[in-house]
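Notes to self after the call with IL:
- keep both proteins in one doc
- input above output, always
- annotate only the second one for now

Protein 1:
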Amino acid sequence: VQYFQRAVFESHPENQPPFDVLLSQLGKFQLEHNKSMMAGEKPDYPGAKADLTGAGATFPEPIINGKWIPTYTGMYSGVKINYQGIGSGGGKKQITAKTVDFAGSDSPLTDAEFAAVGGPDNFMHIPWVMGGIVLVYNLPGVTTQLKFDGPTVANIYLGNITKWNDPAIASLNPGVNLPNNAIAVVHRSEGSGTTDNFTDYLNKVSDEWKSKVGRGASVQWPVGVGAQGNPGVTQLVKQTSYAIGYVEVSFAKSNNVAYALMKNKAGNFVDATAANVSEAADGVLKANAVPADLRYTITDSPGANAYPIAATSWLLTYVDQPDVNKGKALAYFAWWAVHDGQAFSEALGYAPLPKSIQERSEAQIKRMKCGSGPCFP
C-alpha cells in the first residue's frame, strides 16, 4: 500500500481526490489482512519445542522423510525430526531400549515384545500409513505385466518353483513368452515388518509355507539372497536379470521396476492401488478383526478388489512420555500425520487411513501423557 501511495501521488498529483477513495479502501484491506494474519499466525512449534529422533521401517520412509518431515518442520521451525529407515526390527529394538523417541514398524509387537515394554497400558501402536507389498521382478524381454497367486509365490520362495517358465507361472500368464531361466529370489536381510506382512500372507495361502517357514519379521529363508530394506531389495532386483523380490509399491513405482498383479481371495487379479488397499482394510474392519491394542493385519482380506498383501505401518511409542517437551511435539506431529499428512498418501502409492482407523489413531494419541496432563491437545 505504501508503494502504491507513493507511485500514485508522484505520478498523478492532479488526480489526488479520486485516488483518496481508492487508497482509503486499500488501507482498510491492509488492516483486515493484518488482522487475519495475526489470527491465523502459526507458532514456531505446536505443543512444545523439541528435537525428535525416530527409527524403524523403510516401508513408510518415502512419505515420512520425503513429505511429512520437510513439510511439518517447514511450517514449525521449532520442531526438528530425524527418522532413520533401518527396518522395523531395528526400530522395535531402539524404542524398547528407549534410545529413540518413536519407532516406525510395519509389524505389531509380538506378545513377548509387548510384555517387555509393559503391554497396552504402557505402550501404544498408532496406525499412520497403509500400503501394498508387491512382487517386483526383472524379466528381460517381457513387457506384459505378470500375474501371480499366493500358492505360486509361496512355492517360489520355498524353492519348489525354480524357473520362470514353470507351468504354475505359465498358467497364470497365458500368451506371455516366459524364459527358461532360473529365478533369482531376493528377500530382506534384516528384521522387517514388510517381511512380517509378506510371510503372514504366505502363511494364509500355503500350508507348506506355514509348516516349514511360518510368519515373522525374520525367518529362515529356504532359498534366495538378502538385501537391506525396501531400497536394497528394489535395487538388487533392478540390477539382477530374472530376479524377484517383495517391496512396498512406492519403491517399485519410483524406481520403475515391474511388479505383478496379485490374485485375491475373491479370485480377481488386482493392483496395489490406494483404493484396493483401503478395501483390504475395510474388509478387516467389517469383520471386527481390529483389537483394542491395534495389533492387526490386513493381508488376504475379503472384498472383490481387496489387495491381498496390504499392510499397516505404526508409530510406536510409550503412553507416559519421559520428556514432556518431546512428548508434546511428538503428539502434535502424529496428529498432523494422521490428518493433514494423509493428503500425500496416494501420490506416493500409499492408501489414506480409513476414517475408522484414523479415529483409533486419534484415541491413541490422546492417551499420551506428558507429566501430569495429556500431551495433546
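Protein 2 (the one to annotate):
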Amino acid sequence: MNAPIPIRALPSGGCADAPVLRERGQHEVFCGLTGIIWLHRKVQDAFFLVVGSRTCAHLIQSAAGVMIFAEPRFATAIIDERDLAGLADCHDELDRVVNRLLERRPEIRTLFLVGSCPSEVIKLDLHRAAERLDAIHRPTTRVLNYSGSGIETTFTQGEDACLAAWVPEMPAAGANDPESLLVVGSLPDVVEDQFWQVAIKPGKPLAFGAVRSAAGPDALFVGLPGNPVSSFVTFLVCVAPLLRALQGADAALPTGWPWRADFDWPKADRRREFLRVRRNAQGGLELFANQSSAVLTSTVWADGLVDNPPGQVLRRGDTVRFLPLSELIAR
C-alpha cells in the first residue's frame, strides 16, 4: 500500500492566514467569433458564414440579439456528427450551402468563411475551400476566409484576422504613389467611404460617401471639417459644385481673375491653399492677418479667396488667381 498522505493542520488563525493564490494571464476572454457582430454592421456588402457547431450558432445569435427572420448578414453552416465522422463530404456540403446562400442573397459582394475551430477539429480546410469557391463566384462575389476560433483567437484578434484577410485583395501601390490612409469604422454603419481627406488648406478632414438604401437610390453623404473656416471653404469649393451637378448645372469653379497680390506669403504648403483676401483701393489684394481655420472673422472681412497652388511662395506684386465670394456663392 502507498504511504498515507499527511493532512496539514490549519493555522491557528484559520482562513485569514491562508496564502492567496493568484491566477495570471488571459483566462476569461470573448471568443473571436463575437467580433462578427461589429464587423457585419460596418461591412455593408459582406456576409459572414461561420462553419461550426450549434453551440456557435447559439453564441452568435445570443451576442447579436437578432432573430433569424430579420435576415442578418451572418449565419452558421452547422457541422454535425456525420460530417465529423467522415460519412459526408464536407466540401460538397459547404458548396451546397454557399450556392443556396448566394442565390437567395445576390447582393452579397464579399463572403467570409469563418472557422469556429482549427481545421483538425472540423475536418475541413477552409482556406482551400475559400480559394475554390472564390474561383467559381468571382467577379460577382469574392470569397475569403479567416479563423474566429476561440481556441486560437480572442474578440479583437478575430476582427484583426478578418481585416488581414483583405490585405491580399488590396491593389498594389506604385513606387511613386503617395502614402495612403485606411480608416476603418470611423463613420456610421450606413455610410460607405469614398474619400476621407482632400489636399486643400483649410479643409481637413473632409468625408464623402454614400448612404445605402435598399428602397431606392443611394443618398450622398458629406462630412465637413470641424473648424469654421475649413467648413466654409470646403463647402464653397467641394459641396456647392456637387449640389450644382445634382441639379444639372455647371459644377466647375469660377475661372477666377488675375489680380495683384499686395502681400507676401513666404511659406509654401504641400496642399492647395485658399487664402482669405479682399480688394483694396490701390487695385490689389490685401491678406487677412490671421489665416487660422479657427478664425471665422476672416470670412466676414474678406470678399474673395486666392487659389494658391501647392508648393507656391507668393511675393508682393505677384499675379494670383482671385475667386470673388460673390461668384462662388451666386453660381
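Annotation: The radius of gyration is 30 Å. Confidence is low (pLDDT under 50) at residues 184-193.
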